[in-house]
Amino acid sequence: MGTFSIWHWAILLLLIGVPVFFAVRSAAKPSQNPEALVGFGGWLMLLAIGQALSPLRTLADFANSADGYQQLMTLPNGPLAVYGELALNLAFLALQLVVLVSMLRRSHRFPQLFLYQWFAIPVVFILDTIWISSILRVSVNQVLAGDALLAPIVSFVLTGLWVAYVYKSVRVRNTFTRMNASAQIASAS
């Protein structure tokens, strides 16, 4: 049960890859009336749903890690390891919330913030791995035991496909145009 067979990978590719392929393809296809493509519709709606659920997923990961955190607390330097990991994950949660708010406000900064969120996935994972390994004085291989790499890699790849969509989509370009008040004042001067 611990390994993924080729059939599991094929099914995963079909379930995730095919919709994302069509999203990127439709974003690159010129529209008959590009000005009409605005708002949370089409593929952008799927992205909006995913972005809205991402902080909830992070909170669910916190809940799922509670037992592991309790076990770590009994080890030497365990509390420091737990608090450091919690701080990293809370910082990532804060970034997810900033990206969500910018998306809901239709801010012109959303594509850039979404890109930063994508970069944060491996950064948080690498920092967390180094933190746990150094604080608990265990090898990186022990920290990455089992399928610990699978979820971050899948998350990074899927989010990367959505980043490509965000930067190619006419709908995204038309939707995220709103500047904050200080930027509007500066551009008017």
TrEMBL record:
Where does the sequence pass through the membrane? Answer: 6-24, 36-60, 80-101, 113-136, 148-167
Which key words tag this protein in UniProt? Answer: Membrane, Transmembrane, Transmembrane helix
What is this protein's name? DUF2569 family protein
Q: Which organism is the protein's source? A: Mesorhizobium cantuariense
